[in-house]
Amino acid sequence: MVRTIALLLSQLLTAPIVSETVDITGRGEVDLASFECRDINRSTVLQRVCYDREQHDLIVAIDGAYDRYCGVPARTVDGLMGAPSMGQFFNQNIRRQISGDRYDCPVPRRT
User: Fold this and answer.
1) Pairing mode of beta strands 28-31, 57-62
2) What is the pLDDT of residue 97?
3) Which run of H or E residues covers position 3?
4) I need a labelling partner for 92 at 20 to 30 A (CA). Which of 13, 24, 46, 86 fits?
5) Which CB contacts under 8 angstroms, 24+ apart, belong to 82-86?
6) Angle 82-86-92 from CA coordinates, rounded to 5°
7) CA torsion angle for 11, 14, 15, 20 (degrees, to 10)?
8) H-type alpha helices, 35-101
9) What is the pLDDT of residues 81-107, one digit of tens each?
């Protein structure tokens, strides 16, 4: 039993760390290494919320598609996570209606 646990721990410690990336609709891939992600099971709108507190970037999954919102204050994300209706809070306080609206992210340059 101890040998099995030791073997599993050694495999875990020597396994390569691979960060997750997600494809943002129309904007390419984003590495989630700096994001704290939470799967959401109490909302009919949001399935996953990822937030980078240092960069103030929010990534949300809605209907299996990811979208990114830039410049979102931590207090707004905290409000989202604690809201009785996450979907309603998101739609009223975060979701963009048109390109260039609040929390829009710059389009990445193509090289």
Assistant:
1) unpaired
2) 75
3) helix 2-14
4) 24
5) 85/43, 86/40, 86/42, 86/43, 86/45, 86/46
6) 110
7) 140
8) 74-82, 86-93
9) 999 999 999 999 999 876 667 898 887
Q: What kind and span of H or E run contains 13?
A: helix 2-14
Could you tell me the two tokens for 39? 């799967």
Whose tokens are 């939470």? That residue is 38
Q: How many CB atoms lie within 10 A of CB 72?
A: 21
Residue 91 in tokens:
């739609």
Report the distance separating Cα 5 and Cα 80, nearest Å. 40
Contact 40, 49 (CB under 8 A): yes
pTM for this prediction: 0.78
The phi and psi torsions of 51 (rounded to 5 degrees) equal -140, 135
**CB 47, CB 62: distance < 8 Å:** yes
Q: Who's near 62: CB < 8 A, 6+ residues apart? A: 45, 46, 47
